[in-house]
Amino acid sequence: MSTSHSADQPVGHSSARSAGGSVAAGDQPLPSRRELRRREAEAAAVQGEPTAVYSDVPPVFEQSQPTHAQATQAPPAVPQGHGGQSPQGRLGEDQPQLPPTRQRRRRQPTAKEPLGPIRGTVRTFGELCITAGLVLILFVVWQLWWTDIQANRDNEVLADELTQDWANQDPNELSDDPDEPVVAEPAGKNEAFGIFYIPRFGDDYYRTVAEGVDLEPVLNRMGVGRYPNSAMPGEVGNFSIAGHRVTYGKPLNQIANLRPGDEIIVQTKDGFYTYTFRNFDIILPDAVEVLSPVPDAPDFKGKDRILTMTACNPMFSARERYVAYAELTDWTPATDGAPDNIKDSKAYDKVSKNGGA
């Protein structure tokens, strides 16, 4: 007797047969693998275990609190599908969100390290040095620049006041000898009485001369000062003056530029005294014999009318004194006007605009 296969059985499955070659009446076909998986999933669901889903996507478990061991492990990499899509679903479907495994930590501010006593001392010393340097720079600017501006303004105002006073006064009477100069009248302490013109120092150079050689107010604000007890302009003897070489208008800044034959004109109420430079000397500050009627010869009276100008030497130092000597060579009364060497200068034009001689 031949045996035949049932057409309803899939390939790979067999059924129990009776001894006679036919299926027993009470027998059931074996369940398929899909059926077994379904039954296992139902049993697991009843017991509260995670349900296994057999599909094309990986299983999805409900979010649960991770254990300490799981929290310390690095999160698994999520594979990306075609076109950057996750294999958990297609475009447009709601995708389950994976729980964040790591939060971004906020950067804590760095605590400043406290300064020790040595570092603190060095830092404080450095700040003091910087402050002292700035103060020194400001002092130098004030000393070398601002004092010149202020002194020049004071000199202009003083010269204007002096020429206005001269315009309201009558000059002294002239002597019978036209070559005999009128001696200027003595002035009170710290009082201006004349104006200096030195063409070698510039066409616009002029400075007032006052009685006394004190720094305040004469040398710092009034121009040049006359040494007490020295001769007056036009008088026989030694007309001696002092002035700054730097700062406060620096009236004798160019004293070392004088050359033999250069003229120094001194204007007073009575007229103009022209002194001609002849030589110079460099001395120590205590060599007061240069102020004698005959310089360097205090025992002689002499017959010459001498002008002696003194200033500090070298520049920016008071270690020595630069001395320039000149001798009276001309005299012009105020009624005759200014001499030719200054009458067309900017300096005299500025001084005489207020009614000077």
Automatic annotation (TrEMBL):
One of its GO terms (molecular function) is hydrolase activity. The keyword Repeat does not apply. Residues 32-42 have a biased composition (Basic and acidic residues). The chain crosses the membrane at residues 125-146. Residues 12-26, 65-75 have a biased composition (Low complexity). The lineage of its organism: Bacteria, Bacillati, Actinomycetota, Actinomycetes, Micrococcales. It is an enzyme of class 3 (hydrolase). The active site is at residues 244, 312. Pfam families: Sortase (PF04203). The keyword Metal-binding does not apply. This is LPXTG-site transpeptidase (Sortase) family protein. Residues 1-118 are annotated as: Disordered. Its EC number is 3.4.22.70.
